[in-house]
TrEMBL record:
<dbReference type="Pfam" id="PF08245">
    <property type="entry name" value="Mur_ligase_M"/>
</dbReference>
<keyword id="KW-0460">Magnesium</keyword>
<keyword id="KW-0547">Nucleotide-binding</keyword>
<dbReference type="GO" id="GO:0008841">
    <property type="term" value="F:dihydrofolate synthase activity"/>
</dbReference>
<dbReference type="GO" id="GO:0046872">
    <property type="term" value="F:metal ion binding"/>
</dbReference>
<dbReference type="InterPro" id="IPR036565">
    <property type="entry name" value="Mur-like_cat_sf"/>
</dbReference>
<dbReference type="InterPro" id="IPR013221">
    <property type="entry name" value="Mur_ligase_cen"/>
</dbReference>
<dbReference type="InterPro" id="IPR018109">
    <property type="entry name" value="Folylpolyglutamate_synth_CS"/>
</dbReference>
<keyword id="KW-0067">ATP-binding</keyword>
<keyword id="KW-0436">Ligase</keyword>
<feature type="domain" description="Mur ligase central">
    <location>
        <begin position="51"/>
        <end position="273"/>
    </location>
</feature>
<keyword id="KW-0479">Metal-binding</keyword>
<dbReference type="GO" id="GO:0005737">
    <property type="term" value="C:cytoplasm"/>
</dbReference>
<dbReference type="GO" id="GO:0005524">
    <property type="term" value="F:ATP binding"/>
</dbReference>
<dbReference type="GO" id="GO:0046654">
    <property type="term" value="P:tetrahydrofolate biosynthetic process"/>
</dbReference>
<dbReference type="InterPro" id="IPR036615">
    <property type="entry name" value="Mur_ligase_C_dom_sf"/>
</dbReference>
<comment type="similarity">
    <text>Belongs to the folylpolyglutamate synthase family.</text>
</comment>
Length: 447
């Protein structure tokens, strides 16, 4: 995709950002009005797998897509936020093969039509971009649509879907407390809002019993056929293979292509979801899906590019957009797994926005990482000052240094480790906005 192609849709969206709020204002009234003006495209979708959760929903979406495409089905996918280009939010299915990100002219046209239908009325940009999702997915035939929730569930703009083939709730932890509540039970209640009476529900691995109990109780009250991780389905590693089990029996599968032990449970939830949604998925398709799945910016290794050249020779550089304490725990566990297999000193390069819990995130890496370098975020107005973020890292128990950029941080790590016999492992993370900045600067945007 050329710069000129990107700019047409980006310019249309920039016009929306200049006129309407960029953030969230949780309500379904505005999106309902807007969709009615567009002829209610949300009522003309293929079967929908609707995915919510604090962490893991993007991975579950990626697994579902890979498995379904491996069966030859065409799959629309909506995710948010994007990392580099707006087009990443909209993947249109292609019969018999992998889908592709929406083309720039098609996206620009859809944005213009949504703006015209809104006719200047009060609305958020996220609501307008969600309307674009429904318009695109209704106008391009496909076998299934996977739609990721933006924030929460009950009042998220995606929750105008009357019935879902399957509602999926991935792990829940504290995040967006200002919008969703300050206890996991309250957040779970908001996420459970995507459940529809009588429609199948898959509940992914939950660390908190309180969250799981709220989800199960809600599903039972609505009469939803419910599958709960650890009870109705599960997965574990055995001799370098993923063993998945549900009422249909055992499946001996390859380990997921996405790294980290937390991906075993995410993959299991996706397998269960596509089955609960009514799709006949042979084991061979599941194997192919697990082996081919892609999810940019989530424990993605930078194997080259402009930015990575600033780092130490031979360094192992990873990026991940996880940004809350729960995500920090699973990322730290993945780093610990890497350390077991191939010991290397670990350094963190972290940027975060001001709605997160930096100390809780950093604490997950205690006794694992040697030093923290903090950086600014250019893709968000809400980025934390690196000096303040370094103070948060210090209060969590780290030696921390504020830097002006990821390139500077990589160069400092290169100087620190210049004479070390083993090249370091470096994690760049704390924000999807930062990951987007890194991929853009590195010259390796998602496709």
């Amino acid at each position: 995709m050329t710069a000129a192609e990107v700019s047409e849709a980006a310019q249309e969206i920039e016009k929306l950002l200049a006129l309407h709020p960029k953030g969230f204002d949780l309500s379904l009234d505005r999106i309902t009005r807007l969709l009615a003006a567009l002829g209610n495209p949300e009522q003309r979708l293929p079967p929908v797998i609707h995915v919510a959760g604090t962490n893991g929903k993007g991975s579950a979406t990626a697994f579902c897509r890979a498995i379904l495409e491996a069966t030859g089905l065409s799959v629309h996918v909506h995710t948010s936020p994007h990392l580099v280009n707006w087009h990443e939010r909209y993947r249109l299915g292609v019969k018999g093969g992998r889908g592709a990100l929406v083309s720039d002219p098609v996206l620009a046209d859809a944005v213009r039509r949504v703006a015209a239908a809104n006719a200047g009325q009060s609305v958020t940009v996220f609501e307008m971009l969600t309307a674009v999702t429904f318009l695109l997915f209704a106008e391009h035939p496909a076998d299934v649509a996977i739609i990721e929730v933006g924030l929460g569930g009950r009042y998220d703009a995606t929750n105008v879907i009357a019935r879902a083939a399957c509602s999926v709730i991935m792990p829940i932890s504290l995040d967006h407390q200002a919008y969703l509540g300050d206890r996991v039970e309250l957040i779970a209640a908001e996420k459970a809002g995507i459940m529809k009476r009588g429609c199948p529900v898959v509940i992914g691995h939950q660390e908190e019993d309180g969250a799981r109990d709220v989800l199960v109780e809600t599903a039972e009250r609505l009469g939803c056929p419910t599958s709960v991780y650890g009870q109705d389905f599960m997965a574990h590693e055995e001799f370098g293979r993923l063993i998945y089990q549900d009422e249909c029996g055992l499946a001996d599968l390859p380990l997921p292509r996405l790294p980290g032990r937390h991906q075993y449970a995410n993959a299991a939830a996706a397998i269960r979801a596509v089955r609960a949604a009514g799709f006949d998925v042979p084991e061979a398709a599941i194997e192919k899906g697990l082996a081919s799945v892609e999810w940019p910016g989530r424990l993605q290794r930078l194997a080259g590019g402009k930015l990575s050249h600033h780092g130490p020779a031979g360094a192992e550089i990873w990026i991940d957009g996880g940004h809350n304490p729960g995500a920090g725990q699973v990322i730290a566990e993945a780093m610990a797994g890497f350390e077991e297999r191939e010991p290397r000193p670990l350094f963190l390069i972290i940027g975060m926005i001001n709605t997160k819990d930096p100390v809780g995130y950093f604490q997950a890496f205690l006794d694992l990482a040697e030093q923290v370098f903090t950086v600014p975020i250019h893709g968000s107005d809400a980025g934390l000052d690196p000096v303040a973020l370094a103070a948060d890292a210090a209060s969590a128990g780290f030696e921390a240094n504020a830097t002006s950029s990821v390139a500077e941080a990589l160069s400092l790590i290169a100087e620190l480790t210049d004479e070390d016999p083993v090249p370091p492992r470096i994690l760049i993370g704390g924000s999807l906005y930062l990951v987007g900045d890194v991929l853009a600067e590195n010259g390796t945007p998602p496709r």
